[in-house]
Structure formats: C-alpha cells, structure tokens
C-alpha cells in the first residue's frame, strides 16, 4: 500500500476503540467456578444450561486469539462435567481457536475434566490437580428410625426401585451394582484423559487414575498439567502487553441466581425449598473440604 494511503489509515485505526482493532490481540476469559451440577443458596452450580451462553459469547469474540478458562472446581456431577467439556471442545473446533485452562485453587475430579477441554493446562504453584475417580456417598438411618419408633413403608413397581434407600438396610447386591456403575464412569473418565493428554502423561495408570490428587508441580511431572503461571503473566508473555482479556460472565438475576435456561430444574419444578438449599450447601461444602479447602 502506498505510504500516502497507509499513514492516514494507520491514524484512523488508532482512533478506533480497542475492541474494534484487529491489531490488538484479544483473549476472552470465562470463569468456571464452583461445584458442578450442585446448586447452593443464591449460587447455582456449574451446568451447561447456566454456562453455555457465556462460552458461546467468548468463542464468538471478534479477533480472539484464544479463549481462557479460569477453573476453580472440586467436581460434582459427571454428566454435567462431560456436557461442559463437550461444548467447549465443539466451540473450539468450530471456531479453530485454542483454549487455555488456568487452574486456581482446585481443578479436581469433574473440575479436572473441564481442564482437559483445554489445549494447555496452567496452574498456580499451590493448585490442587487430579482426583481422576468416581465417588458416591450416602447415610444410613435404620437404627435411628428404630429408636424413634418410625416405620418405613415403601410401595414400588420394580424390584430395584428402592436400591440404596438410606432408610432401609444396605444390601450387598445393591452395593455391587452401584460400584459397577462407578467403574464404568471411571473407565470413561480415564479414556477421556488419555485422549486429551496423550503422550504428555508420564505416570502409570495405577498412579494417575487412583483418585489421588497433587499440587501443581507433581501434576506437571505426571503429565496432567503443562506449566505453572498466572493468567495475566502468561497471556502478556504470549500476546504482548496490550492483550485484552475481557471477562465473559454468566448472566445472573438480581438475587444472584443464574437466569433460567433450558434444563434448569427451577423452570420445571419451581424454586427449591429451604431444605433443598441446605442439603445442596452441605454437599458443596463436603466437595471442597475433600481438598483441604
């Protein structure tokens, strides 16, 4: 282009807002924080229905060089973890945009599955990473009911409909069935990690997939993560000091809950009651406490 034309165009470009300038790199950021699929009072868990729009907006950002995911999750629902993983990979492949995951406090269990959707996994030095396994927990109230003089009456169509009912004695065949299901989910989780991390994995299957978790450097040594760093430092190093990192937030209502979308339980059954909220809060607290947080 002749200098007589280039100079005025350069001057006009400098007057444009940064978000419209192709010469300023952009890396939109999506924060994936909290338990997956577990809803707590005034704070919905991570679910496809609450996060999908934010992910789509991030990948549709003009001139995006990459999409950054800030992950801080102890895990939760396997299905919601996988649905979020799939949506991130679908968008990344459609837009041909690399994905960088930045793990903060925890990227464990389902939270690590989310990190596996990224092309690179970057951790803080004190991040907790791993826990590639499946866990389920319940309570048994049979002796308490006997002491209280409460009789349990259940009417079903289907012999296994009350499998693992906490108000009935535990049956060995029920435990065998639930552990078989957990093993199936675990094998699928292992296959996903191997497909995404590939030759970067250096640990044995017995170590990597035992359900154990590690701090960042050990996770890097095992091939579960790639680098130690922070979002601002890494992005400036790769894309320059002028890199823009707009936060693409999940849309929330006035009182903090995510706005309803397809698949939200509240849209089908009404708002959860206080008891449901308290139970969900306890479940979430238990997930975080597993990692000393």
Structural overview:
It is a single chain. The chain is of the alpha/beta class and 293 residues long. It has eleven helices and seven strands. Strands 1, 2, 3, 4, 5, 6 and 7 form a seven-stranded mixed beta sheet that branches. Helix 3 (78-95) links the parallel strand 2 and strand 3 (99-108). It is elongated and about 75 Å long.
Strand fraction equals: 5-15%
Helix/strand-derived category reads alpha/beta
3D shape: elongated
Q: Count the E strands.
A: 7
Helicity, as a percent range: 40-55%
Q: In the CATH hierarchy, what is the class of the largest domain?
A: Alpha Beta
Low-confidence stretches: 253-257, 259-272
Largest sheet: 7 strands, mixed
What count of domains describes the coordinates? Answer: 2
- Multimerization state: single chain
CATH superfamily of the largest domain: 2-enoyl-CoA Hydratase, Chain A, domain 1
Q: Would you identify the CATH architecture of the largest domain?
A: Alpha-Beta Complex
Terminal Cα separation, in Å?
59 Å
Whole-angstrom Rg: 23 Å
The number of helical elements comes to 11
Kindly report the CATH topology of the largest domain.
Answer: 2-enoyl-CoA Hydratase, Chain A, domain 1
């Amino acid at each position: 282009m002749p200098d007589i034309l280039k100079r005025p165009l350069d001057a006009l470009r400098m007057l444009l807002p940064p978000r419209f300038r192709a010469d300023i790199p952009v890396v939109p950021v999506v924060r994936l924080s909290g338990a997956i699929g577990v809803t707590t009072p005034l704070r919905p868990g991570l679910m496809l229905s609450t996060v999908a729009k934010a992910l789509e907006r991030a990948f549709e950002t003009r001139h995006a060089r990459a999409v950054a995911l800030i992950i801080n999750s102890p895990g939760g629902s396997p299905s919601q973890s996988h649905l979020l993983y799939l949506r991130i990979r679908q968008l990344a492949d459609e837009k041909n945009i690399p994905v960088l995951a930045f793990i903060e406090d925890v990227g464990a269990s389902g939270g690590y599955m989310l990190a596996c959707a990224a092309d690179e996994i970057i951790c803080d030095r004190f991040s907790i990473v791993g826990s590639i396994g499946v866990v389920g927990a319940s309570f048994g109230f049979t002796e308490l009911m006997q002491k209280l003089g409460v009789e349990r009456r259940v009417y079903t169509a289907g012999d296994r409909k009350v499998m693992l009912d906490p108000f009935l004695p535990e049956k060995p065949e029920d435990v065998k069935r639930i552990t078989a299901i957990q093993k199936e989910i675990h094998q699928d989780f292992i296959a996903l990690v191997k497909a995404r991390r590939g030759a970067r994995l250096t640990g044995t299957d017995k170590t990597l997939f035992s359900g154990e978790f590690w701090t960042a450097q050990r996770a890097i040594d095992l091939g579960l993560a790639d680098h130690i760093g922070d979002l601002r430092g890494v992005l400036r190093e790769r894309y320059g000091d002028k890199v823009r990192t707009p936060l693409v937030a999940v849309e929330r209502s006035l009182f903090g809950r995510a706005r309803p979308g397809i698949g939200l339980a509240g849209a089908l059954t009404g708002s959860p009651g206080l008891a449901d909220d308290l139970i969900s809060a306890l479940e979430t607290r238990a997930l975080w406490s597993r990692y000393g947080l």
